[in-house]
């Protein structure tokens, strides 16, 4: 089962717009709340180009970012830099919140 909580907002031009507030999934009796990962939209591996801002790891500045930090949900590092950072400072390079967990997310094209 999926529950989506949303609000209707009225724009200046008299049109309504739906804004999703929260999404909850129930699978086999377990509740999961869907949350946004910050930075995942600009991290597509296809066509990675060093000149494209926002796609590279914030530490090495050369590899595409593929690792998100929990609990803050910043996707900002490549897996190698994330492993090294975890041993050195254990803090998110964006917000400095302590790292509880790392999630490596591989992004593939539709044809792969």
From TrEMBL:
* Primary enzyme class: transferase
Family matches, as InterPro entries: LOG2-like_mRING_C3HC5, MGRN1/RNF157-like, MGRN1/RNF157-like_N, Znf_RING, Znf_RING/FYVE/PHD
**Where in the numbering of this chain does the RING-type domain appear?**
57-96
Name the EC number(s): 2.3.2.27
Pathway where it operates? Protein modification; protein ubiquitination
Q: Which GO terms describe its molecular function?
A: ubiquitin protein ligase activity; zinc ion binding
Q: Which organism is it from?
A: Quercus suber (Cork oak)
Question: Organism classification, top ranks?
Answer: Eukaryota, Viridiplantae, Streptophyta, Embryophyta, Tracheophyta
The UniProt keywords, alphabetically, are:
Lipoprotein, Metal-binding, Myristate, Transferase, Ubl conjugation pathway, Zinc, Zinc-finger
- Alphabetical list of SUPFAM superfamilies matching this protein: RING/U-box (SSF57850)
* Protein encoded by which gene: LUL4_1
Family membership: Belongs to the RING-type zinc finger family. LOG2 subfamily.
What GO biological process, any one, is recorded here? protein ubiquitination
Which reactions does this protein catalyse? S-ubiquitinyl-[E2 ubiquitin-conjugating enzyme]-L-cysteine + [acceptor protein]-L-lysine = [E2 ubiquitin-conjugating enzyme]-L-cysteine + N(6)-ubiquitinyl-[acceptor protein]-L-lysine
Q: What is this protein called?
A: RING-type E3 ubiquitin transferase
């Amino acid at each position: 089962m999926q529950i989506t909580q949303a609000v209707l907002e009225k724009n200046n031009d008299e049109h309504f717009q739906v804004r999703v507030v929260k999404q909850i999934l129930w699978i086999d009796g377990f509740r999961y709340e869907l949350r946004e990962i910050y930075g995942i939209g600009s991290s597509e591996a296809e066509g990675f180009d060093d000149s494209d801002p926002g796609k590279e790891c914030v530490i090495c500045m050369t590899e595409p970012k593929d690792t998100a930090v929990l609990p803050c949900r910043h996707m900002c590092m490549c897996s190698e830099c994330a492993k090294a950072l975890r041993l050195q400072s254990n803090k998110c390079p964006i917000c400095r919140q302590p790292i509880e967990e790392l999630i490596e997310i591989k992004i593939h094209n539709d044809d792969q």
